[in-house]
Structure formats: C-alpha cells, structure tokens
Design goal:
By secondary structure, the protein is of the alpha+beta class. It folds into two domains: 36 residues, no CATH class; 109 residues, Immunoglobulin-like (Sandwich), CATH 2.60.40. The protein is 19% helix and 38% strand. It contains three helices and ten strands; from the N terminus they run E-E-H-E-E-H-E-H-E-E-E-E-E. The chain starts with a strand and ends with a strand.
Length: 160
C-alpha cells in the first residue's frame, strides 16, 4: 500500500499534566490509491428487492369445526410469468401443522377436491411448509389447493 502524505502534528493530551505534549505521526493514504483498491476489491452490493415481485400470503381464517381455514396468496403477474416463485405458509398455520403432524403424521396437499394431486409445476415441502412453483404453464393460476392434517384443513387460494 502506497501512502503519499505523512502528516505530523502535536497532540496535546494535557488532562493530567500541562507538560505532557507529544508529537504523533499520522499516515493519510493517497485518495487515488484508495479508489484503486476499492475498484479491485469492490464491496458487494446489497440485493434490491422489488416490492412488485413479492408474494403476499395472508391467513384469512382459521379452521373452525368442519370448515376449512383460508389462506390467500396473491402473486404479482410479473412474478407468475417468470415461471418460478416460492411462498411460505403463515406462521400460525406452520405452527398448527407442526403440532398436529407430531401426533397424526405429515399433512396431505391436494387440489380442492381432496383427492387429485397438485400439478407438476407445484411442489410442497412439508418439513419447511413452503410451496414452490416452477415452469408454470399459462392458465395455471388461479389455483386452490387443500392442506389437510388430521381434522384440520386449509384452502390455499393462489391468484395473480
């Protein structure tokens, strides 16, 4: 590292004694050298998140008796047309599913009719409680899937 300027100045630290005066050398690096170093080792920039590419997931209602709970998922058109996106179930639903899973096993995810499998473009990670869409064919959305675990169920309504 090259330094172009050395500045010597006196530092008066006379808090304890008026006779304590000493000289210190302070090295100030050349501004051009600093810029060259920054260009050769750039600081990674934070990734900007575009709010128009954020999936909105809301727990609209909890299961009550025989009625299913409802989770609304709104996917921006730009994100849906990109072909790949993921979303995490709301925290309360994840907790409820984990509590029930401990006693009755893993949840089942189907289309709304309760028996048809979900489309190939949609995967569900039961461990993490995450849905992932990949290579979404045109016309797939809106889509409603059913998550069932024991006596509890939620309709997951996914729209653009």
């Amino acid at each position: 590292m090259m330094f172009s300027k050395v500045l010597t100045f006196a530092v008066a630290s006379c808090l304890l004694s008026p006779l304590c005066l000493k000289a210190e050398s302070v090295v100030i690096p050349d501004t051009c050298e600093i810029l060259r170093q920054q260009q050769s080792n750039p600081v990674p920039k934070l990734r900007q998140t575009d709010p128009s590419l954020t999936v909105d997931v809301q727990l609209q209602s909890d299961p009550a008796g025989a009625a299913s709970g409802v989770i609304g998922v709104v996917v921006p058109a730009a994100l849906a047309s990109s072909g790949t996106f993921t979303f995490l179930l709301p925290e309360k639903v994840r907790t409820d599913l984990s509590n029930v899973s401990a006693t009755s096993g893993a949840e089942k995810v189907t289309l709304l009719d309760g028996s048809s499998p979900i489309p190939d473009c949609l995967q569900y990670d039961a461990q993490e409680k995450i849905f992932k869409f990949t290579d979404i064919p045109a016309g797939t959305l809106p889509l409603t899937v059913l998550i069932t675990n024991g006596s509890q169920s939620w309709n997951v309504v996914i729209t653009e």
